[in-house]
Amino acid sequence: MKKLSQLLTSIQPLKTVGDLDIEITDLIRDSRQAREGVMFVAVKGVAVDSHRFIPDVVSAGARAIVCEDLPEQLNPAVAYIQVEDSIIALAHLADEWFDHPSKQLRLVGVTGTNGKTTTATLLYEMAQLLGHKAGLLSTVRNIIGSRIEEAAQTTPDHLTLNRYLYEMVQEGCEYAFMEVSSHACVQHRIEGITFAGAIFTNLTRDHLDFHKTVDNYIAAKKMFFDMLPKGAFALVNADDKVGEVMLQNTRADKYRYSLRTIADFKGRIIEQRLDGTTLEVNGQEVEVLFTGRFNAYNLLCVYGSAVLLGFDPQQVLVKMSQLEPVAGRFQTLRSSRGYTAIVDYAHTPDALVNVLDTIREVVGKTGHIITVCGCGGDRDAGKRPIMAREAAVRSDRVVLTSDNPRTEDPDEILRQMEVGLPEESRATTLIITDRRQAIRTACQLAQPGDVVLVAGKGHEPYQEIMGVKHHFDDREQLLEVFDAEK
Questions:
Q1: What does the pLDDT read at residue 28?
Q2: Residue 18 Ramachandran class (φ > 0 left, ψ -120 to 50 alpha, else beta)
Q3: What is the pLDDT of residues 38-61, one digit of tens each?
Q4: At a CB cut-off of 8 Å and minimum separation 6, what does 159 contact?
Q5: Per-residue pLDDT tens for 403-443?
């Protein structure tokens, strides 16, 4: 419980009505959670304006209401706090309610189109290997001390985020690493959070169904860096032209990492195989269990961040060699028939290009690449023909299939993808809507030395069709095929 007057020190109300010297039992934004003694924050959402639930919340026993528009009828037993923006007020109230947990951690946020999950997860693993307790908030899972939870979204809502950070503090965590999505920036989900550092991986076309333009997408990412305090670090990919944009107005200390130019953290790929890479980092060689230029960037970023957090550079290099790939991120499986299958989350044109170029660099002309991919429904339709084209240009055979069609017709999604196929690739491209059959067909086409890439879903253990998530795991499907081949 907390005094309402104490909570209000975190925001600047436009107007207050009622007794502010009362005890608040909980802070909520979901009217269905209303009960005796709570403070309810009414938010004007995209789909629902929760101001209309204020009477119901008051009837359920709420003691305080935070809102942008005061109700016409005010209950004398309730305190009303009018604010300019309820979402921003909620962010700061949540921070106050949970005793400013981000200030009690060394919290690092990772943003960018690709590489967020891998980078955040590897930083978590690095801290653990170096003997420090840490927490993780990612697309795949949330780790709060000894507790692991499946993640519902890339960046949690205001209350959940602060609660997770609070629980990390209670569990004795010193560090925390989290993905910061562009949606979270625009929706002010990281408002009021104190970051020790921010990382920018890269930016390519994605989420235009939400942001509408690439410029808006860039501006959303930049919001994260603009909010950093003095003394924090801002680490960006110098090989991505958007990296410098991220640094333009930040008050944080600026650092860069690169595989191509002079930077604070410079890397070079010496040799790569399907099961690992010899990497040079700031002049020192290290063997890592990762493959691909994109993973070299991720690891370089992890190294730089760990050093900026104060870890010993030599120890960081030693532990880098022990890090393992994140589930569903260039995850390699070997068939007894002599071909290799790779499961990767690549669901944007750039990510798919990175993975396919990496495979081609390793196998050269000695093996064929057979790619299974699709596109999700209810998402940016403009990238569908681009995905198909990139897959066809960089593969020897392509099987276009369903991804997560969500509420769309999967066959219509595939027709939109098919438009992007070059004329010369149409004869070598199969269209099989059923993802299970598509994977099996690709494996049947593979010969010893070939690589089957199953792209798009990565770690996801489901396929979402018409609002229902059906169990489906690309890795399980491949292992079933492998068992049948023995």
A1: 97
A2: left
A3: 999 999 987 899 999 999 999 999
A4: 27, 28, 29, 90, 94
A5: 999 999 999 999 999 999 999 999 999 999 999 999 999 99
Q: Which residues fall within 8 angstroms of residue 253, CB to CB, at 6 or more apart?
A: 231, 232, 233, 234
Strand partners, 14: none
Neighbours of 373 (CB within 10 A): 27
Tokens 């920018």 locate to: 200
Which DSSP symbol is given to 112? Answer: S
Give the DSSP letter string of 211-252.
Answer: HSSHHHHHHHHHHHHHTPPTT-EEEEETTSTHHHHHHSS--S
CA distance 294 to 118: 10
Instruction: Give the HSE-up count for residue 308: Cα atoms under 13 Å, Cβ half-sphere.
Output: 28
Q: Nearest to residue 138, comparing CAs of 167, 158, 108, 163?
A: 108
Q: What is the CA radius of gyration of the chain?
A: 24
| pTM value > 0.85 | no
Overall residue count recorded for the chain in this entry: 486
Work out the number of other CB atoms within 10 angstroms of the CB of residue 237: 25
Under 8 Å between Cβ of 407 and 378: yes
The Cα–Cα gap between 85 and 209 comes to 25
Q: Which amino acid is at 96?
A: E
With vertex at residue 176, the alpha carbon angle to CA 175 and CA 177, rounded to the nearest 5 degrees, is 130
Task: Classify 114 as helix, strand or coil.
Answer: coil
pLDDT value, residue 264: 98
Structure tokens of 473?
A: 């795991």
Tell me what pLDDT residue 155 has: 79
Whole-number pLDDT of residue 146 = 84
* Straight-line distance from the first to the last Cα atom of the chain, in angstroms, rounded to the nearest whole number: 62
Residues of the chain with pLDDT under 50: 207, 211
Q: How many CA atoms lie within 13 A of 162 on its CB side?
A: 22
Beta carbons within 8 Å of 147's beta carbon, 6+ residues apart? 167
CA distance 455 to 40: 43
Q: Are 76 and 145 in contact (CB under 8 A)?
A: no
- Helical axes 313-320 vs 116-129, angle rounded to 10°: 110
Residues 289 and 325: beta-carbon distance below 8 Å: yes
Paired tokens of 102: 């981000």
Distance, CA of 353 to CA of 264 (rounded, Å)? 27
pLDDT at 210: 53
Residues 455, 457, 460, 466: is their CA dihedral positive or negative?
Answer: negative
Separation CA 366–CA 450 (nearest Å): 8
